Structures are given as structure tokens and as C-alpha cells.
Amino acid sequence: QSLIERKMAEGKKNDKPSAGTSRQLLAVGIVFILAASTLYVLVRQMPELPSDELEKIKLPRNLDDAKALCSVLVKYKDEYFVPVVGIFIATYVFLQTFSIPGTIFLNIISGAIFNLFFAVPLVSLCAALGASGSYLLSSILGRRLMTHYFPERVRDWQATVNKHRRHLFFYVIFLRLTPLVPNWFVNLASPVVGIPLVAFFFGTFFGVMIPSLLAVRAGAAIQDLSSTSEIATWKTGLWLTLAGLVLLLPVVLKDRLKKFN
Hints:
Layout: H1 3-13, H2 19-43, H3 51-54, H4 63-76, H5 81-97, H6 103-113, H7 116-149, H8 151-163, H9 168-177, H10 183-193, H11 197-207, H12 209-219, H13 234-260
Helix pairs in contact: 1-7, 1-8, 2-5, 2-7, 4-6, 5-7, 6-7, 6-12, 7-10, 7-11, 7-12, 9-11, 9-13
């Protein structure tokens, strides 16, 4: 019986969080507060802004917030390029690490304030770093939490990952291109089911490039956008899913040929 299966069995015997689980929740809360405080300190390093601009410096929760934030960053990004990029990276990694909604708006903003060839690699790097932060947080503090709160989901995905064990890099790219498994679950459960960090990081980096490109290109005309649904249409989702399937096709054919031989 695997370690994951034993943890599942233990979780079913006792549905209430154990002392160890409570301690891990507390530890995650402390890490969150430290990360948020660090981000706040970084933002305070920006030059003193007029009050009307300062009120626009906040985590974007909708497209209007993103447009307002973009209007400030565009004004200062040439003179304060390094601080703006640094705050952009820190904010993106923070949101991604703690699975906080808002990165889609940062993708759009990047297309408005940076050129395409800088923005796409930047967003891909931020996504990979943030996802890896979530991975490491789960690896160190979250294993017990994942097996306690999502036992069946982890067990089922473990079986799927085992089928792709020989080509995890391509499998992670496939996951980033398709909506089959939520990104937050991929980030948190990957260390639990044994996906190596290197395959996870680079699979994420290359896997998010195409979706990021769509958002970055939309950001070039951010003032004309009325909804993020203009970016993530059903046609876009279909094309991304097809791209993921095409990516996995050589791997599947290779495995079939090996079995045939």
C-alpha cells in the first residue's frame, strides 16, 4: 500500500483535522502574511504618487481595476522600468502561489505596458515561478492538507499521473493548455503525486505560453476590452485543447509502437 493510500485511509478514519493538519494551516497562514507584507514593502518603494494615482495601485479584481492600474504603470514604466517589472513579478508570483484570482488581468496589463516579445516570456516565467511557489508550499506544508481535504481527488489523479510517468514534462504542458484539471489543484497536488519540480516548472513555463499570448495581445488594446470573455471564448478553449492533444499524440504513438514491438 502506497504512502498516499495510507494517508487517504487515515483521513477517512478521522474526518476532523488533526493537530498536525491545524499546525500546517497555521504555517500556511503565516507564510501568506509574510509574503503579503513583503509585497507591500516592495510597492512602497515606488516613487510618491498623487492621491488620484495612488488609489489605483491595488490588486485588480475586474477589468476596470486593470485599466486603472495600467494607466498608472504606463506613465511610470519607462522612468522606473526595473521597479515596475520587479513589482509586476512579485505581484504575479504572490497571486499564483496562493491561488488568488487576478493573474488574467496581469497578463492583459503586461500586453499594454510591455512589447509582445518581452511580455510573453515574462508572464510565462511569472506563472512558472508562482506555480512552483505553490508546489513548494504544498510539498513542505500541504501534503497532509491535500490528502485530508481531497483524498479521492488526489488518489484518482495519482492513477492518471502514473500512466504518464515517462513523459511528465509533456503531460504538464498538456494540463496547462487544457481545462481538464484546475490549475490550483495541479499546483498543490503535483508534489503529492510525485511530479518532479523540474518537469513541473518547465512544463508550466512552456504550457502557459500560448494562453498567455492571447491575453497579452488583447492587452495591447486594453481600453477597447469590455470583458475578459472576449479573450477566453469557447473557440479559444477548443483550440487550446486540440493543441494539447496534438502535443501528446507523438508520446502516445511512441508508447503504442513500443507495445507493438
